[in-house]
Amino acid sequence: MNLGILRLFKISIIFILIQNLYAQVQTYDFDFIKKGELDDNTLLLIGGIQGDEPGAFMAASLIATHYDIKKGSVWVIPNLNFYSIIKRSRGPYGDMNRKFADLSSSDPDYETIQRIKKYIKAPEVKLILNLHDGSGYYRKNHINNLYSPKRWGQCSIIDQSKLDIPKYGNLQEISTKVVNSINEKLLRQKDVYGVKNTKTRQGDKEMEKTLTYFAINNKKAAFANEASKDLPLHERVYYHLLAIEAYMDIMGIEFERKFEVTTASIKNVIDHDIYISFYDEQIKLPLSKVRSILKYFPINKDGILEFTPSNPLMTIVKQGKEYVIHYGNRKLAKLHPDYIKVVKDDRDINFTIDGEKKSVKLGDIVYAQESFLIEPIDDLRVNIIGYVNKSLNSEVGVLVNKNEIQKRFSVDKDGDLFRIEFYKKDKFIGMVLLGFEK
Which residues form the Metallo-carboxypeptidase C-terminal domain (predicted)? Predict the structure, then answer.
């Protein structure tokens, strides 16, 4: 092996080690999001303590992203056990909702538990709501295996009837009000809600380990809301949102939301109002119909992919040679990397779209009906992914019709949205997405 090849081999090994190190140190800390004006009447809303309960963490995330708090304060933790959400597991290191009594400092969840305890005990917090998806349908009297006192779905849970505190200590009364409010808006009668009092202090050793019991022992009103796992995701979220809004009404917290609380609107928001940006918005990628694999995706040479998600349930995990976009329990897309130096460039790009001149920023998404042209740029090279013209080194100054771009190179499954990449010498500076309107 000559010295040149040996040097190249060593550089390659170092590069691989750096990438693997990045993958190993990636953290899954939960998000803590403050909404509204800080006061002493704060609702602490928690989702994602168990990663196999998507209705719970999806509802909490919608409060974080699609609600404006006009009066009062809401603190939202939509992804308390984020690693378990990514792994689609109740708890990779055991059930986190059984770790609020004694817990060894060597437990992998120890730091997360200590952090959430701090927020629970914060003096501003007056009411805590922990969201869950539970099995079957709770009924006070046994009907069958699915409808039973042993089931947890479709109920509001309290640990005891009353708590001697200045505000919201009438737990049974509050829970009953919430249940009555939900039952006025049932999708079907079998979804009826009830109040489930676990009477934890009377010797329920398992419930003594839970988040809500820790809270009431720290003189905080605490409730859990359960939606049935037998319901589809958007219906679980529907019932969680009804419960959350009922608690906010009781607390006098005023809000505005960006969608109607209907199952159709909720499903649309969950599935379609999602995107992710890269490198300070030099790339913006809609995810509602993204292809499962995007090849030759520009990623900085150091292997670190800087991204900003539109939703706190979204992250990117390095798995082997690929970067996988996760959204809650879902894997949306795999990015096959094209490692290249990424640099910042703030200039606008001049397009002619359907005969009309437009100035476009890197990271923008633009639409044409029939054709577009990118005006020549002195020091930039342009690559329109899916368009082939072997006579051009840079695909500028040429009119491109929609039937000249191969649909299989689109970023979306419909074959309508295409990447236009911009390079300065051997460096990547950003991307514009261009879609053809139907």
Answer: 348-436
